[in-house]
Amino acid sequence: MALPDGKQAMSRLLSFLMTVLRLHRVEVDREEGVVRKKRTRMGVVIVWAGNGYARLAKERVRVLTIPRWHHREAMIYEHLYQSPLQTLSNGTLVMKWMGISVKGLLTSQERGPLFRLDLAREVSRSLSELHGMQFDGHAVSHADASMTNVVYDESNGKTAWIDFELVHTPALSTEERHADDLRAMMFTYLSFLPEPERPKAVHAMIQAYSPQPALLQAFSNQIRDPKLRRDAYHRAQVRLSDSDHQKITGLLVKEIGTFAG
Ligand SMILES: Nc1ncnc2c1ncn2[C@@H]1O[C@H](COP(=O)(O)OP(=O)(O)OP(=O)(O)O)[C@@H](O)[C@H]1O
Ligand SMILES: [Mg+2]
After folding, report:
1. What element of type H or E holds 118?
2. What is the pLDDT of residue 106?
3. Ligand 1 centre from 164 Cα, in Å?
4. Which pLDDT tens digit goes with each residue over 231-243?
């Protein structure tokens, strides 16, 4: 069903704002091995307005308020990376530097196809590890599993997911939340790959995650749903032409069929 024109326009505007406006000031200090992150005043206003719109438009995610974001980020860092976070009195989070952004690695084109294939596998494996974790009595989902939010540690070849200020709405089931993360991960990773490399990467990522049948079904439903593609949230995450989006959807549908069969 087509969205009303007004909502389409609003969704386009919001996704544009989400990509150009910065909610946070992030300082990466490689010498000290830390990252400092603070929500800006403008960020607080944008989050308030954005969450209001998200409620009205029934978007699938919300941005956490500062105390809830700090709490969630600290719990996940401690559990997954055994790395406690520090919160300064001015609201700055100080966390361990975990590696180079995967988006940066893929766009720099310094590495070859074999590295990109191994990286695809590792990114997917680490997402499935994150999904195995419980927080507040629920299985964790990332809610913005795009390539700006996963980093690669060259010293051990592992990837780590970062940036936990978004949450999926509680109305979504665990499978729907995890499927949404799989969607964001797949589409954003594949969008940075040359087209001939995509089929092998899709195969490697599905194998490395190894989804259960219920999750595979939810994933299959989501990638075929044209309405979800028009969400402001989805538009901001996945910036692909319609034809590229369709090609990747086709690859995923084919791979899901092979994996399920
Ligand atoms: N712990 C970390 N280790 C290594 N790099 C980090 C870390 N935290 C943040 N970064 C770097 O800073 C960038 C921005 O950080 P983050 O994603 O937390 O902020 P953001 O405001 O949500 O930005 P974006 O909207 O681009 O996702 C990341 O893409 C990554 O390159
Ligand atoms: Mg981020």
Report:
1. helix 113-131
2. 95
3. 10
4. 666 777 788 888 8
> 61 C-alpha to center of ligand 2: Å?
14
**Confidence category of residue 3, pLDDT binned at 50, 70, 90:** very low
Q: Do residues 233 and 51 lie in contact, with contact meaning Cβ atoms separated by under 8 Å? A: no
Burial of 228 by CB count in 10 Å (0-12 exposed, 13-18 middle, 19+ buried)? middle
Ligand nearest to the CA of 162: 1
Counting atoms of ligand 1 from 1, which one is nearest the CA of 146? Answer: 27
Our answer on whether the CB atom of 85 is closer than 6 Å to any ligand 1 atom is no
pTM (two decimals): 0.91
Q: Please tell me the distance between residue 11's alpha carbon and the centre of ligand 1 in angstroms.
A: 24
Q: Which phi and psi angles does 73 have, rounded to 5°?
A: -60, -45
Closest ligand relative to 154 C-alpha:
1
Assigned token pair, 156: 């051990």
